[in-house]
Amino acid sequence: MEHFYQLGWTLDPVGGASGEAYKAEQDGRKLFLKRNASPFLAALSAEGIVPKLVWTKRIETGEVVTAQHWKNGRELNRDEMCSERVASLMKKIHTSGPLLTMLKKLGMKPMLPDLLLNKIQSSLSPKVNAHHTVRAAIQYLENEMPKIDEQFCTVCHGDVNHNNWLLSDQDELFLVDWEGAMIADPAIDLGMLLYTYVDSERWGEWLADYGKPLDRDLLKRMKWYTLVQAITMIQWYEDHKRFKDMNDWIIFLNRIINRNRFI
Q: What are the residue boundaries of the Aminoglycoside phosphotransferase domain, all occurrences included (predicted)?
């Protein structure tokens, strides 16, 4: 990012250790810069899902840098994830034609359940694969695989953790960090969000704000995808030797297996 230093910008890395994102300041102006962001960012900006895209430039190294308005704000807390605003923004994302069209133009194909299951099975270490709770979950996934028509797949975020929801000082709500975006069954987002943040007795109310009834089919699909994501997180934490977090996810996985046992 030497190009921007030479132009008089002050750059501070943000967003972890990847070195891809920066807070840039010059003469009181603040921007969020990112290297090699997906062209999908423009569509997200146009829909108001992320802070507004200001410009896109190719710099001397050949890398593409995007600039967005810098938004002072905070991540949502766990209670706020139950709100109607979160449900409404989730619905907007899942029903957006322009977002779906852009991902298709970028060559993305639907991530159907059989592909997800094959992906996690091929990625598991012997230790994780042998754990009795993971084995029980895999058996459930094999026996209860949803049958999804591709035409019902939508744009999904894939990581709706509260850390990725930004509430600006101007009371604007954004969902950021779209590196894992996919075309898939929207239940992949709904399941993790509801199982993680919303009390089960409020699921019907939350889904009414989202615009869907809570029926047996949706319950089964949400459970299936949440098991997939939990196993993925268990493997990720084992890979990074964060064993306490890995064990927390194993506990979560066991809870999901035993929740709604007869669906």
A: 15-214
Q: What is the pLDDT of residues 71-103, one digit of tens each?
A: 999 999 999 999 999 999 999 999 999 999 999
The predicted structure's pLDDT at residue 145: 97
DSSP state of 76: P
Q: Which whole-number Å values give the CA distances from 96 to 40, 89, 91, 99, 110, in the listed order? A: 13, 11, 8, 6, 15
For residues 79 and 133, give the distance between their C-alpha atoms in angstroms, rounded to a whole number. 29
Rounded distance between C-alpha atoms, residue 221 and residue 195, angstroms:
12
Residues 6+ apart with CB under 8 A from 27: none
159 carries an active-site annotation: yes
Given the residues 159, 209, 245, 248, select the one marked as catalytic. 159
Q: Residue 17 pLDDT more than 70?
A: no
pTM for this prediction: 0.91
Q: Name the β-bridge partners of 29.
A: 26
Cβ-contact 257, 140 below 8 angstroms: yes
pLDDT tens-digit readout, 115-155: 999 999 999 999 999 999 999 999 999 999 999 999 999 99
Q: Where are the alpha helices (DSSP H) in 2-108?
A: 2-6, 40-46, 84-94, 97-105
Angle at 253 between CA 250 and CA 259, to 5 degrees: 145
